[in-house]
Amino acid sequence: MSTKKLDKEIKKKLKIFKKKYFVYPQYDSTIEQSLARLEARAKFAETLLSHKLSDFGARMLAYSNNNFYLIEYLYYWQNINVSKLNDMKRHPEVYLKEMITGLEENIKIRDEMIKQCVSGKIPNIKLNKHAEKEVIGRLTCELYKVDDSIKISWNKSDSIKNDPMKEKKKQLFVNIWRYIRNKLIISKKENVITTKTPSKETKTNVLPQDKKTISHAKVIAEEAMRYRALKKANHSPTFQPYR
Fold it and tell me: Which domain of life is it from (predicted)?
């Protein structure tokens, strides 16, 4: 499969996932957190070996507890598909060659999606209960096991790119800049920049959305100043940027 075709297939799958599985408002998770959840599920699955398959699935779903993210979904499906592919190759007389080829391509697509999640190119987005139930209902205890190779490759993920707060931090500074920009009012009469609030005589066209932006930015600026002040005083405040 060419790189161009691979990218096209990934975009197609993401479009389907967005419609069927993505949770809104959007929540992201780091790769390290997802790896920890995979390992925790694998350990819990081992405690349920004596349970019936139907009971096993229900207990695993309850344990997962709607805390399920894209890379986890992709990883579990890879385990399912690789297991199925190995079974097909052991009995080639039963399966058509096209079926094996199609499954191999699907595995390749999901493998690339996992790599892009690890690199931060694709955000590790939280998925809904439908996605969680779909994949967990197909897993046996063996398929929950975490391969040692991913522990190495996933731990090499870029922590900055995979920081769920990255976009919020970026938006924080954008909003502060908007506040400063809107604070600088261009005087129509003198054609100079002033930081004074326009008088009643001076008419300035301020759109409703700009008023809202200014109000929000003021809150952000004040919170940022409070955070810096507390940090200087050797405190460790919890800084909650505006959402």
Answer: Bacteria
